[in-house]
Amino acid sequence: MSSEQISWLIKGVMDGSVADYQLSAWLMAVVLKGMNERETADLTMALVASGKHLDMSSIGTFVGDKHSTGGVGDKTTLVVAPLVAAAGVPIGKMSGRGLGFSGGTIDKLESIPGMLCTLSVEQFMEGVRKVGLVVAAQTPDLAPADGILYKMRDVTATVDSLPLIASSIMSKKIAAGANGVVLDVKVGSGAFMKTPEQARTLAVAMRDIGSSVGLQVRAVISDMEQPLGWAVGNSLEVREAVQTLRGRGPADLLEVALTIGANLLQMAGKASNVNEGREKLREVLQSGAGLRKLREFVANQGGDPAFIDDPDGLEPAPVQRELFAWTEGWVERIDAEAIGLASVEIGAGRKVKTDSIDHRVGFVLHSKIGDRVAEGAKLATIYAASDESASNIEPAIRGAFVMSPREVQPPLVVVEVIS
Predict the structure, then answer these.
(1) What pLDDT digit, counting tens, does each position of 27-60 carry?
(2) Residue (of 292, 395, 267, 301) closest to 339 by Cα position
(3) Do 196 and 222 touch, CB atoms closer than 8 A?
(4) What is the pLDDT of residue 353?
(5) Which is catalytic among the residues 93, 97, 172, 360?
(6) 262 DSSP assignment
(7) Contact 63/128 with Cβ under 8 angstroms?
(8) Of 50, 111, 168, 171, which residue is the catalytic one?
């Protein structure tokens, strides 16, 4: 497609002259045939041009952002954003809702009573200026055409496409006016990119799009063969983020958060290198400043921060059922995609865009790959809305675990960093 054709298409999406069935057909064509680098860059900038482009220069010389390509149990934003903001780097982030079997940051935040994630451009800018941290749903003013494509991709099985993923992510990053962004590109069974080669190709494509418009971009390729952390499900993941900011969270989640955050600090000039950035973030964590920033951020967007001190402030699921190991040995595999699909089935995600989400439901893992477990030890807990729902989902969760009689090494959490 020529640049003019791509521009015409996106304008048609905005004014309604391109019908849903036509857009669906085009999306499927992209999935089947792909797009070249120039077409992907043109699509990105056409999406940006469909709305406003924020100017953050009045806030500071550097405003940071991060984005995940989507995974299972991925609550990294809820950890890294408060830590980085507390370390002195403002974060202005537009996030999405769940897409396919991957959870969305906005869905997680909306499990907090009163939390407002739909903000005007003015509210977005004021939050970054006042608190140093805003996480909001895509506003109608910023890359609005991407919002239309995003919803259509979710319900037409056209999520899994490198150019569509790259253009969607980068259009939001460019429109939101950040100076630098760290991308968390997931790889494995619970990610859209199944192999390291696919993940690296996507990371490089997004880096190059950013570089072409003067945006600093780095990419962290991280493991998604198993869910990140222990919790999968909206309010359960919010609780785990609070645990992590208290210094009691899972090691894999903290490692990803520190890697992303340290790169942001270096890009912003707050650290001379990544190791110094990690140390600064650990100081922020240990001092409790990250937790205080989370509280300030939630309150500024209308949420009730009481859950930070009292986890029961987030309504628990009425049914909790524990699953136990059927044999002793080492956990060899936890199929992240199977867990993600099960989370949609139990109500933590959407099958179609009109579905409502039950923020209470999901799963908590008690063992990860490489752990040795005894027969009868707890493997996972199901949080469900009813006994019937728990019974229906139990075989899928049990089937996601593979045990080995031999010792298993845990996978690397951070596979590669691309700068």
Answers:
(1) 999 999 999 989 999 999 999 999 998 888 888 8
(2) 395
(3) no
(4) 66
(5) 172
(6) H
(7) yes
(8) 168
